[in-house]
From TrEMBL:
<dbReference type="Pfam" id="PF18897">
    <property type="entry name" value="Gp3-like"/>
</dbReference>
<protein>
    <recommendedName>
        <fullName>Hydrolase or metal-binding protein</fullName>
    </recommendedName>
</protein>
<dbReference type="InterPro" id="IPR043991">
    <property type="entry name" value="Gp3-like"/>
</dbReference>
Length: 316
C-alpha cells in the first residue's frame, strides 16, 4: 500500500457544463447551457463523448437532467469541496484548505497551516478559490464506478453541498439509495452582465414526492443490506482512503484542471470581454427586433385605419 496517495472513488467519465475552446490564440474555458458526459480520453477535438451522453438525450434535446445515485451515505464523501491553489506552470496543487486548516506545499515539504480563506490569505491572491468534486453513479453497469463533476462555481458548490445535507437529514442517512437526478438551473446577475449563468442542482427524480423517494430508498437500502452489501464499511474505507493522501488531484489530472478551471488574470479578462460582447450583440438584436416589431405594428394599424376610412366613404 503506497503511503501519501489519496485513493479517490473510481472514475469512468466526466460531467461538464462547459469546455475549453481556442480564442485569440489561447485555450480558454467556455460555459455551456447543457450537460455533457465524456470519457476520460481526449483527442484533437477535446474530450471524447461517453456513450451515455447520447443515450440520456431524448429527441436530440439538450441534456439538462441526469438520473443519478450516490456511492456513499456520507455527504462529505460524495461531495468534497476545498479552497484550492494550483501552480499554473506545473499544474500541481500548492495549497488546499477548508477555511480552518490547510496543507501547503513549501520548500520544506507539505506543511499544515491555518487557513484564513482566500479573503484573508496573501498567497490566495495568486488564484485560490473554491473547488468542488461531486461523484455520482449513472446507470447500473458498475455499482462502484462513478462520473465526476468538477466545478469552481460558487452556486453549484453551495447548492450541491446544501442538498446533500438536507437529503441526508430527511432520509435518515440513506443517501446511497435515494433516486436522485442532477438538474441544470440558470440565473442572471449584475456580475454576469445579465447573461444567464448555469449551475448544478441535485433533486429527487422528476415526478417523485419526498415520501415516495424516502420509501424507495429505505426498501433498496434494506434489500442491499440483506444481500450482504455493507454500506457502512464502504463509507469507512472511502473516508480513510481519501485521508491517506496529501492532495486529492494527481499530477496528470491537475494540468487539465488548471486549464479548465484556473485561467490566469489575462485569460479571464478575455473571457469577460467575450461575454460582454456577446451580451451586447444579443441586446442589440433584441432592440432591433423590438423596433422592427413596433414599426410593423404602426404600419399595420395605419393601413387598417386607412382601409376603414375608405370603406366608410364608399358606404356614405
Amino acid at each position: 500500500m503506497l503511503k501519501g496517495l489519496a485513493l479517490t472513488p473510481p472514475i469512468v467519465g466526466r460531467i461538464s457544463i462547459g469546455k475549453v475552446v481556442e480564442r485569440n490564440g489561447k485555450r480558454l474555458p467556455e460555459k455551456d447551457d447543457e450537460f455533457t458526459l465524456t470519457s476520460q480520453v481526449q483527442n484533437k477535438d477535446g474530450w471524447v463523448p461517453h456513450p451515455l451522453n447520447e443515450t440520456l438525450r431524448q429527441a436530440n434535446t439538450k441534456l439538462r437532467q441526469i438520473p443519478v445515485r450516490l456511492l456513499f451515505d456520507d455527504p462529505d464523501l460524495n461531495m468534497r469541496a476545498s479552497y484550492s491553489l494550483f501552480d499554473r506552470q506545473t499544474g500541481r496543487p500548492l495549497c488546499v484548505g477548508n477555511g480552518e486548516t490547510c496543507r501547503r506545499s513549501t520548500n520544506s515539504g507539505i506543511q499544515s497551516m491555518p487557513c484564513p480563506t482566500p479573503e484573508g490569505c496573501e498567497l490566495a491572491q495568486k488564484g485560490c478559490k473554491p473547488f468542488g468534486r461531486l461523484n455520482v453513479r449513472i446507470g447500473d453497469d458498475d455499482e462502484l464506478s462513478t462520473f465526476v463533476f468538477r466545478t469552481t462555481g460558487f452556486n453549484s458548490i453551495r447548492t450541491l453541498s446544501t442538498r446533500l445535507r438536507y437529503f441526508h437529514a430527511v432520509s435518515g442517512g440513506l443517501l446511497s439509495t435515494l433516486p436522485l437526478e442532477l438538474r441544470l438551473r440558470g440565473k442572471s446577475t449584475t456580475q454576469s452582465h445579465r447573461a444567464p449563468i448555469y449551475y448544478v442542482d441535485l433533486t429527487l427524480r422528476g415526478g417523485m414526492t419526498m415520501q415516495e423517494g424516502i420509501a424507495q430508498a429505505r426498501t433498496d437500502w434494506d434489500a442491499r443490506k440483506a444481500s450482504g452489501f455493507d454500506q457502512m464499511a464502504l463509507d469507512a474505507t472511502a473516508r480513510q482512503s481519501l485521508g491517506d493522501g496529501m492532495f486529492e488531484e494527481s499530477a496528470e489530472d491537475s494540468v487539465d484542471i488548471v486549464e479548465e478551471f484556473y485561467p490566469d488574470a489575462a485569460d479571464q479578462e478575455v473571457t469577460r470581454e467575450a461575454l460582454k460582447s456577446g451580451v451586447n450583440r444579443v441586446a442589440g438584436r433584441q432592440v432591433q427586433r423590438s423596433t422592427s416589431s413596433l414599426a410593423d405594428k404602426l404600419t399595420d394599424k395605419l393601413r387598417i385605419n386607412s382601409g376603414s376610412d375608405s370603406g366608410r366613404n364608399c358606404v356614405d
